[in-house]
Amino acid sequence: MSNPVLVPVLGDQLTRTLSSLRGCAKEDTVILMMEVWDEATYVKHHKQKIALIFSAMRHFAAELRDAGWSVDYVKLTDEDNSGSFTGEVARAIERHAPRKLRVTEAGEWRVQQQIEEWPDKFACEVEILADDRFICSHAEFRDWAEGRKHLTMEHFYREMRRKTGLLMRDDGKPVGGEWNYDAENRQSPDSGINPPPAPKFAPDDITGEVIALVKERFGDHFGDLEPFGWPVTSDQAEEAADAFFAQRIEKFGPYQDAMVHGSDDLYHSMLSTSINLGLIDPLALCRCAEQAYSDGKAPLNSVEGFIRQIIGWREYVRGFYWLKMPGLADDNALNAARPLPEFFWTGETEMRCLADCVRTTREDAHAHHIQRLMVLGNFCLIAGIDPKAVQDWYLAVYADAFEWVELPNVAAMVLYADGGNLATKPYAASGNYINKMSDYCKKCSYKVAQKTGDGACPFNPLYWHFMDANRERLESNHRIGRIYATWDRMGEAKQREYLDSAEKFLDSLTPASEGWARNVN
Ligand code: FAD
Ligand code: DLZ
Ligand code: SF4
Fold it and tell me: Whose CA is nearest to atom 7 of ligand 3?
């Protein structure tokens, strides 16, 4: 092929209708896919995450070739692999002498910075296209955000409902009369929990090869590599989605915030990895959910809840990320500075809730939303853990973690590190919340009902320690400020008990050793 169009496709762009591929002619295009050391190690990703991405990339390349495309696929182990996207594009330019580079913008700010240097670095024309796999463009989000003091997700979500027409009546009102049915979605797991597990996919030869590679090259990264069961092709992602709509969406809503020891999937879709890699279309999933409601197969509270996660939260955090980067990564409004405890990596803690959330994270490279938010995240918030350490941890350990979705959730939603642009109040909670929404506390060595002293659930004193330490900032917050009246009524002796218990607990924590999240040289 002489002077073709060269189309680099990144590891989270595995979509046949990607903007950079649309309009290209097979006989005139070389698709470049690159396994590179920089991407595999900018944090030390969970072993399953690397295996998932490499396997999905290799399967996608094979599908493209079967469909008649020319794919230049650089494996991690290829001799002369430069280890970076820019280095590999430079080498591919030497191989193919393209007349033009055509690339879809990156999901992550870090990678987009590299891409934006390409027009100056390379002699050929470079075309950078918007990623229109999202419903809301960057410009649309910026317009929506302009002039607003609080970027309330609920308001953004309504715009997305109107834009997509999902669960909308002809008169412009929401189906069922309400926009949000969250009040019906807070069932504790005491009764009726018997979820069929999400399907797991046995590794084929391609995945087997990748698993061997990860064992050899990334053996010191966090997490269990096997059993490996993630969907790695769009067919498998469709099968996983079909199983969700047939078996689990009905109870998705009511048990959305429930936590059960030893159980990860519950009624969740387990589709975030497939959505984020581009194997399945998020809007199509929402249309299937809407259909399940129209067909009477799932109640409105479940369907609306699922759709809100995707066209609401997912789109919103992506818009927020691009609006706030690069500053968001450095925000630390609460001046939190404590190192991440070692147990986030080892799971070795007597706190049964945290031990279970780290277990599922290690075994599956996944934990569901409320585990990430109200157990792991809440602990980091009220223990005052350094946002950078928390961000690295979340980015490394979850198979669905890409910075554009991880960072707003961690920095802004969980840690309030942006000072409250995203969350109107910090999601701080004592052990009572975890006890209400889970079966963790019954068999924990700590007593959830005990507020202070040896044996008290650490979340209880930590909650008040956090509130006390951040009084100046939080007292004026209309959603949480009134709590200080309760604190003041306790009197000095009780307050001292809380603060001493919290400090004793914090002093007992072992900081994580270096080398878990990033390679140290
Ligand atoms: P379901 O419960 O079935 O939800 C359906 C879909 O909605 C998900 O697949 C996802 O695409 C979307 N969704 C739900 N909640 C969110 C949210 N808060 N933000 C964006 N999308 C959402 N999700 C990621 O995809 N990558 C991350 O790196 C990530 N990091 C997170 C970190 C923290 C601290 C928190 C609180 C949440 C994070 N989430 C992240 C959101 C959420 O926890 C996961 O999307 C969800 O657990 C994935 O499992 P699921 O597919 O079964 O989700
Ligand atoms: C996460 C990841 C990993 C581990 N490895 C690669 C890789 O070798 N090649 C690749 O194209 N993408 C990889 N990714 C995903 C990229 O980090 C992802 O494309 C960026 O986050 C896009 O901004
Ligand atoms: Fe977690 Fe406290 Fe419950 Fe133990 S008692 S499981 S530490 S919330």
Answer: 351
The token pair that represents 203 in the structure block: 């590794």
For residue 272 and ligand 1, the question of a CB distance below 6 A is answered with yes
Q: Which helix (H) or strand (E) covers residue 207, if one does? A: helix 205-217
Question: How remote is the CA of residue 473 from the centroid of ligand 3, in Å?
Answer: 27
Q: How far apart are CA 413 and CA 427, in angstroms?
A: 8
- Find the residues whose C-beta lies inside 6 A of ligand 3: 351-353, 431, 434-435, 440-441, 444, 446, 448, 457-459
CA of 349 to the centre of ligand 3 (A): 11
% of the chain exceeding 90 in pLDDT: 94
For ligand 1, atom 52, which residue shows the shortest CA distance?
A: 270
Query: Which 3 state secondary structure label does DSSP give 293?
Result: helix
Cα–Cα–Cα angle for 462, 265, 408, nearest 5°?
Answer: 55
Residue 100: is it exposed, middle or buried by C-beta count within 10 angstroms (0-12/13-18/19+)? Answer: middle
pLDDT (tens digit per residue) in 28-64: 999 999 999 999 999 999 999 999 999 999 999 999 9
Beta strands in 198-315 (DSSP E): none
Which residue, chain included where needed, has tokens 């609460």? 334
Q: Are 12 and 107 in contact (CB under 8 A)?
A: yes
Angle at 179 between CA 176 and CA 183, to 5 degrees: 90
**Cα 267 to ligand 2 centroid, rounded to whole Å:** 29
> What confidence tier does 192 reach under pLDDT thresholds 50, 70, 90?
low
Q: Which ligand sits closest to the CA of 269?
A: 1
